[in-house]
Every structure is written in C-alpha cells, then in structure tokens.
Specification:
By secondary structure, the chain is of the alpha+beta class. It is built from 16 helices and six strands. The strands form two sheets. A four-stranded mixed β-sheet has the order 1-2-6-3. Strands 4-5 form a two-stranded antiparallel ribbon. It binds protoporphyrin IX containing FE (HEM). Residues 130-131, 195, 305-306, 309-310, 313-314, 317, 373-374, 377 line the site of protoporphyrin IX containing FE (HEM). Belongs to the cytochrome P450 family.
Length: 403
C-alpha cells in the first residue's frame, strides 16, 4: 500500500472520528444543559467559530506576546474569560489580582494540576518533570525540598560570588580590549554555571570560549523553541498520531533525547565512575537512587528541568533591565550614582549589599513587572465544583493566570 493510500485512509478515519465526536458532543451538551441549570454560569468570553472555538485567536494574535493579547481580551470581557479551543480544550483566563488570589491561594488544591501540553509529553517528560507534576505528587514534593536545601542562600553564596567575579573579569577584559560585551551571552553563561555548580559542581559554559557555550546552547534552545509553539493535538486530540509522526512532538523527542543523553552520559555517568564526594545536589540525588527512592531517568529529567527553568528567565530579565536603562539615561545615571556611592571601588555587588541599593532593587522589580519572563501561570481544574470570580469553572478546564 502506497503512502497516498495510507494518507487517504487516515483522512477518512479522521473525518469519521471527527463527525462522531461532534455528534456525540452535541447530544451530550443537550443532556448536560438540562442538569446544569442550578450551577452558576461559566465565565463570559468570545463566541468563537463552530468546531474551532477561539483557536484562530490563540494561534494568531496570542502567539506573540500572549500576555498582552490576553489583557485586551480581559478589557472586553472582564477579569475572567472563558475560551473554547477546538473540540475538547476549554480555558479560563484570569486577569485581575483578586481572582488570581482566589485561584492560586483559596483554590490551590482544586488547581493543583499543571496544564500539560501534548508536546511536553514527548519521551514521558511531562510525567516526571516537576514543572508539570501536580503539587500533590510525592516526587514533586521530594524535589522541591531538595531545591530548597540546595539553593538556600548559604549554599549558593560562594558559587554566586565566584561566578560574579568571573563575570566582572570578563566585562573588564572586553572593556580593556575595546570589545563590546554581549550581555545575553555573558549573563546566560553565568546563570548556567551557577546552576551547574550548585547541581553538580562543574561549569557548563566558559565565558572566554563562546564555542563551548554554543555547544550547550545548541542542546537547550531547540527544545525551548519547540515547546513555545502551540500544538494542534491539544485542540484536536484525534490529530495526535499524525503530529507524533510528522509534527513538533517528533522534533521535540529528538532534541530532548540529545539533552537527556548529554546529562546522563557526560554528568551522571562521570560522577558514578568516580568515588569522590562533592557535597552537591547530584550527590544527594544519587544517594536516593541507591536507596531506590529515585530513578536515573527522574534525575536526568530534574537536571533538565533546572536548566530549562533557569536559562532564559534570568537572562531575559537582565537584558530587559539593561535595555530599559539605556532607554532612560537619567535612570541609568541614578543607578550608577547609587553604586558609586555605596560600593566605592568594590568590584561587584554581593547579596549583603542589596539592602543598601534600594534604587537598583526598584529597577529589578519594575523590570519584572514590565517584562515578566514567565507571564502566564497555567493550571488545570481537578475538583468537581470550582467557582472563580463568581463563575462556574468545570473540572478539566485549563486555568491561565495572567501575571
Ligand atoms: C527572573 C527569573 C525567574 C522568573 C521570573 C521565574 C518565574 C517562575 C514562575 C512564574 C514559575 C511558575 C510557578 C508556578 O507554576 O507556580 C517558575 C517555576 C520554576 N522555576 Fe523559575 N523563575 C526564574 C528563575 C529561575 C531559576 C534561576 C531557576 C533555577 C535555579 C528556576 C527554577 C524553577 C523551577 C524548578 C520551577 C518549577 C517549580 C515548581 O514546580 O514549583 N527559576 N519560575
């Protein structure tokens, strides 16, 4: 049988499934509308198109700067907006501080699950990643405690101060030789090395050797790029087999496998082969693996999580802070004056200096407000009767809090 015949057979099957699903849904909605009369109404939202719902809006304007497009939606419909995406996915977008508080504090348990997009399920990533596990999960709790201890200020202070020293040295070397400083590369390399040293006591980037930095970046960036794209199968689950075969899920599996292999072969394997103790998070993880409390795959996923969560967030925030200061030279003058007054000839800011630098502190906070690196917090309703802002939000609905 040729590929075209297979494709035709597949298309017919899909159309059939699609028609049955639509019929089934319309019968079911007639049945449930009768029983749901006593429930509060769902939140308001755009009418959307038949079958597609608001999907075109999501893959159109929402794709770039989604948090800004969602603000426009909130202005039209209110602090909680209901969106139907394709056949199965329903979302409630929360845009006010009061409803966000209601969602994340009062309804914390009802919203314990994270939204897991289909492309995050590649290589079972979503099933073991702490970024996607519900906060009620045992593995999530175990890893959160570990992060709390491993990234406590006393643990990371020496690592931070050494990397800050290296960054200052790098900036000075660039200035001395008249080379421009690539802020993105320098900050990203520093952040990655802080995380890698807290996790497994090694640098993954050499600030002087951009080539080495590129090797690590070439493993992380493609995964982040693929994950940032919406996946068709989230709105139309019956298209999942096709997407797994030809779409982004297949590409993510390839990129993720390379990243997993790097951490497993280059970091974990090397540590297992040596008997020296480093007193770092990897030592703790491997001792738990020896007690059968963690698997090697869970350790690899955890390390991947940490790099993915850390790499772009801090870098983009510093880039924005510098860009805003360049756009507002009078504010840049104030920061410089404060640093000169409080630090004198000291090379770089340490944690203990921060309380002496209220203006710099305010610049960081304002940057996080104007350009949040993670503007949307996604959750999924796991309780039967949840209401938000006075509206009924059914179980299974995705809830997005727009910070
Ligand atoms: C400007 C920098 C950063 C910002 C704005 C930021 C923001 C966030 C936000 C909004 C979340 C989601 C929280 C939730 O769903 O309740 C998150 C989760 C997370 N972040 Fe960050 N983050 C930053 C830097 C970092 C760094 C440097 C690391 C690692 C050292 C990190 C590790 C994580 C982890 C592991 C999670 C998942 C935690 C969980 O499941 O509870 N983040 N971050």
């Amino acid at each position: 049988m040729g590929f075209s015949v297979l494709l035709a057979a597949y298309t017919v099957t899909l159309l059939l499934a699609f028609t049955i699903a639509t019929l089934h849904r319309s019968i079911q909605s007639k049945r449930t509308s009768a029983t749901a009369l006593n429930k509060p109404a769902p939140p308001p939202g755009p009418a959307g198109y038949p079958l597609l719902g608001s999907l075109l809006y999501v893959i159109g304007p929402l794709r770039h700067n989604p948090h800004r497009s969602l603000v426009a939606l909130a202005k039209a419909h209110g602090p909680i907006v209901y969106l139907r995406l394709g056949l199965t996915r329903a979302m409630a977008v929360v845009s006010s501080a009061a409803v966000a508080h209601e969602a994340l504090v009062k309804n914390d348990a009802a919203l314990a699950a994270r939204l897991v997009p289909d492309n995050v399920r590649a290589l079972s990533y979503g099933a073991t990643s702490m970024v996607f596990l519900p906060s009620s999960d045992q593995l999530w709790r175990q890893l959160r405690v570990l992060i709390g201890a491993g990234f406590s200020s006393s643990q990371i202070r020496p690592v931070l101060e050494r990397r800050a020293g290296q960054l200052a040295e790098h900036v000075r070397a660039c200035a001395g030789s008249g080379r421009p400083v690539n802020i993105r590369e320098a900050v990203n390399g520093t952040v990655l090395n802080v995380v890698s040293n807290v996790l497994f006591s090694e640098d993954v980037v050499d600030l002087r050797e951009q080539q080495k930095a590129q090797t690590f970046k070439s493993l992380v960036v493609p995964v982040l790029e693929e994950w940032s794209k919406p996946s068709v199968s989230d709105a139309f689950p019956f298209l999942a087999p096709l997407e797994h075969l030809l779409g982004s899920r297949r590409r993510i599996s390839t990129h993720l496998a390379k990243l997993f292999r790097f951490f497993d072969e280059v970091i974990i394997e090397k540590r297992l082969a040596c008997c020296e103790k480093h007193n770092d998070i990897l030592d703790v993880l491997l001792s738990r693996m020896a007690m059968a409390k963690l698997t090697r795959q869970q350790i690899t996923t955890f390390i991947t999580d940490m790099f993915i969560a850390a790499s772009d967030t801090s870098t983009v925030t510093v880039q924005w802070a510098m860009a805003e200061l360049l756009r507002h030279p009078e504010k840049m003058k104030k920061v410089n004056a404060e640093l000169a007054e409080k630090l004198g000839s000291k090379d770089f800011v340490t944690e203990s200096d921060l309380s002496e630098l209220p203006y710099l502190h305010a610049v960081v906070k304002e940057t996080l407000r104007l350009h949040p690196a993670v503007p949307l917090i996604p959750r999924e309703v796991v309780a039967d009767d949840m209401s938000l802002g006075g509206f009924h939000v059914p179980k299974g609905t995705g809830v997005i809090v727009n910070l």
